Amino acid sequence: MTPARTRIAALAGIATLAAGVALALPGSATALSGGATVDPQPAALADAPDIPLSAVTAHLEEFQSIAEANGGNRYTGQPGYRASLDYVQAQLDAAGFVTEVQSFSTRAGTSYNLIADWPGGDPTNTVMMGGHLDSVDEGPGINDNGTGSAAILASALAFAQSGAEPTNHVRFGFWGAEELGLLGSTHYVDSLSTVEVDDLAAYFNFDMVGSPNPGYFVYDDDANGTELRDSLTASYDAAGIDSDYIDVDGRSDHAAFMQRGIPTAGTFSGAEGTKTSTQAAKWGGQAGQAYDPCYHSACDDIDNLDTAALDLNADLIADTLWAWADHDFGGGTTEPPTGDDAITNGGFEDGTTGWQATNGVVTTDLDQSAHGGSGKAWLNGYGRAHTDSVAQTVTVPDAGRLTFWLRVDTDEDTTGQAYDTLRVKAGSTTLGTWSNLDAGDYRSIALDLSAYAGQSVALTFVGTEDAYLASDFVIDDVSLTSAG
């Protein structure tokens, strides 16, 4: 977790509210640690499994070993951070996740986010969980935030092992450079198009979930996240834990999501703040002592844990994952369209009608010719680091076939490395990628969308340009029809 700013002397100094009446967790009847269960609502997924403490601590031991082999930390810009990310990515890749590494610059050097998507589920209702993977430079960061990262990873691997076919799309984020000011999660959210932001239905953040003198806190700082907050509170209630609400004052990675209107919530077991006598009476531990006396210190190592709190919180994360993967957001599959073309204004002759686009992308500018008529979508061409997008949410017909015409002009090399790219995405899934290596006049592109038949899907064209030399991606005459 990032250091407190001037308004906070200690987390315990923030006013907290007692948790409310227990609520039923949708689609889960798993006891956490207290033996109590919550009556399930009907759901397609089985109940969440118990996450063995040994599975979580195995990941933490790996983080500890990585830090010891790399100068004692897993800090942004240092080899220990990238080794941690490579370890997590290898675990997720082997389990069948689709992973993507995002790089971005910081004052400490290059950092990285790891995004992992479980195939399937409605991409217009994407449920995301995340936590930061980096440590401070003073130590290995096993509680802050090895614990959140390891518990999320263990839950994700259990989800994959279950062969889950969730109603909603499920995504995980492991953030870089949180300790430098929430840079990784902010970079990720800033990279999303308006449509992609709309598709994110919920974001849960888990930052420090095994503090040695633990508290049991639930974020209560997002008016849009009340339902998420109450779900976490219900999990604690089911385990016999009387949790406290807390406003973490934007100190963790949910902040960027919250600022874009995405519902957020999370849990936290405490950092440099002091446990009160009331909290010690209901949670155990030492009143008058910090929740984590090794916060942001070299002693935040594999011995700096309360394993009972870590075990309980890992099960809470799994319960939340299973419940929200099948949560009813009030949408659902719609009937395939009966018309000939599911795309509105595919030739861009009516401007941005039907489309959401970066400013200036939909144009009749004569510097780039249209394939037909005068309108087209012209992405990039600036010769500097820049991202453009144009998107439309559609209901995919049976045997859906997406076609469009693409022209690529570039000042980059056309035979060596792909520096500038155009991606076509259905929700968060990339259907195809083109680059400066594909330079040439208009050609017809066809993509199979039959796997999405009957689903409401955001189709997004995303152009990304690096800091040098221009590449222009021009799209026209987009169509989505039934191949049959």
How would you characterize this protein structure?
This protein is an alpha+beta fold. Helix content is 23%, strand content 27%. It contains nine helices and 18 strands. The chain has helices at 53-68, 79-95, 142-161, 183-191, 194-199, 226-238, 254-259, 277-283, 307-325; strands at residues 98-106, 109-118, 122-132, 168-175, 200-206, 217-219, 244-246, 264-268, 356-357, 362-363, 376-380, 386-395, 400-410, 421-426, 429-435, 440-448, 456-465, 471-482. α6 links the parallel β6 (217-219) and β7 (244-246). The radius of gyration is 24 Å and the shape is globular. It starts with 52 loop residues before the first helix and ends with a strand.
